[in-house]
Design a protein that fits this description.
Layout lengths: L2 H13 L5 H5 L2 E5 L1 E3 L1 H6 L6 E3 H17 L15 E7 L2 H13 L4 E5 L1 H5 L8 H8 L4 E5 L12 H19 L5 E3 L7 H9 L4 E7 L11 E5 L6 H9 L5 H7 L8
Parallel strand pairs: 1-4, 1-9, 2-3, 4-5, 5-6, 7-8, 8-9
The chain binds zinc ion.
Length: 263
């Protein structure tokens, strides 16, 4: 999304009717990717999925404040609370450990990190190292989930290939961190009922999609919708997204069957 489109979406969202109060309160699961030092943001090409440390800090402050007052609790993805907000990160970026996790830990906010083993194995400094992954898994409030073994569009694979991707990523992560991995998110947000069925059969209890919507806790835990967070989202934009002012995007999502996430 370029700046012009974003500004237009902002105008629509600011003037959009709020959903009714009960829908506003439903659980919202936020989807983050990379959190980048402000200096690095300035020197690289804008990437919709790389949010600045300043913006991310303002998000953490807002969520911590609402968590404290009880206005909107921050809860883990698998929590049975029907309300509140859950925080997730995709892909396993190193900055999830170095920038995001310390900010969340300081406020005692739980979060999920969906990791693609192939990113770790690649040795790219962009992603967590093996030791980094283990360190992240030990942070109080952090839960490691899977994100496919090699970040494929799972809906394009054969049943055997889907099973391999979902099973091997789970086992690889469990061996590394010494804990059960019961959650995942679908790479590229790509899934179908076969993928969902196989995810369940290999032992996942919860799986997050990239479809924009509230999460009705207790229903369809293997297709949990999420709210996309972008690089231009400041504190005010997060507030609007939590309140449901950007929910008009789910209609676009559905009508065009868009796969909005490239990551
Ligand atoms: Zn991804």
């Amino acid at each position: 999304m370029n700046l012009l489109k974003y500004r237009l979406a902002q105008v629509v969202s600011a003037t959009n009717f709020l959903p009714n109060r009960s829908e506003q309160r439903l659980r919202r699961v936020l989807m983050y990717h990379s959190v980048v030092k402000d200096a690095d943001i300035a020197t690289k090409a804008p990437d919709i999925y790389s949010i600045s440390e300043t913006y991310f800090t303002s998000h953490v402050d807002l969520m911590a404040q609402q968590n404290e007052t009880g206005q909107r609790k921050v809860v883990s993805l698998e929590d049975s609370d029907p309300y509140g907000v859950s925080i997730t990160f995709d892909d396993g970026y190193n900055d999830t450990l170095t920038i995001a996790a310390p900010l969340l830990l300081a406020k005692n906010l739980p979060f999920h990190v969906f990791v693609t083993p192939e990113n770790i194995i690649s040795g790219s400094p962009q992603y967590l190292s093996s030791d980094g992954l283990i360190a992240l898994s030990k942070i109080p409030g952090a839960t490691i989930g899977a994100h496919g073994f090699s970040h494929q569009h799972l809906n394009r694979l054969s049943p055997k290939e889907i099973t391999d991707e979902l099973k091997s990523s789970k086992e690889w992560l469990e061996n590394k961190i010494g804990k059960s991995v019961l959650t995942m998110s679908y790479p590229h947000g790509a899934f179908n009922s076969l993928v969902e069925e196989i995810a369940s059969s290999v032992g996942y209890m919860f799986a997050a999609t990239s479809n924009w919507d509230c999460y009705k806790v207790g229903t369809q835990p293997l297709r949990i919708p999420r709210i996309d967070i972008w690089n231009l989202d400041n504190r005010n934009a997060l507030q609007q997204k939590l309140d449901g002012r950007w929910d008009w995007l789910k209609k676009i999502n559905k009508s065009q069957n868009l796969d909005t996430s490239n990551k």
